[in-house]
Write a structure and sequence with these properties.
The chain is 38% helix and 27% strand. The chain is of the alpha+beta class. The protein has one domain. The strands form two sheets. Strands 1-4-5-6-7 form a five-stranded mixed beta sheet, with helices on both faces.
Length: 129
């Protein structure tokens, strides 16, 4: 059984979902991922939510660290990973990717957000380790 998320994680998660909804409401589907990332981060900043974009995380293998360009799209408040997509179809590898990111970055909560959908609710996937 999973340990519940902290109150802080849940509060930030709500801000993330709200920011994604606002971006999608304004832009809709059809833009490149970088456009959504920029606007999503702007929405977070309007909510006074701290974030870092394109955060490099080393891969740890056999107790050795390798800096090989592994990057998180957005790390929110140092706690939650957001991987943003703008694709026609979600590939199962995207979910595996964010789960690997959560493990490597030692985080518990992540969001896989696809903005290229008619209704954003269908594009948001919450992942908890």
């Amino acid at each position: 059984m999973f340990k519940p998320l902290s109150e802080k994680e849940e509060k930030i998660a709500k801000e993330i979902v709200d920011a994604a909804f606002h971006v999608h409401k304004q832009l809709g589907p059809g833009f490149l991922e970088k456009v959504y990332e920029t606007c999503f981060c702007y929405e977070l900043s309007k909510r006074d939510v701290a974030f870092r974009q394109q955060v490099e995380v080393p891969i740890i293998y056999d107790q050795k660290s390798f800096d090989i360009g592994f990057r998180l799209d957005v790390l929110v408040e140092g706690l939650i990973i957001c991987e943003l997509k703008a694709v026609e179809e979600m590939n199962p590898v995207f979910e595996a990717q964010i789960m690997s990111y959560l493990k490597m970055a030692e985080k518990r909560l992540g969001f896989l957000i696809n903005f290229n959908v008619p209704v954003i609710k269908a594009g948001i996937r919450r992942i908890i380790l």
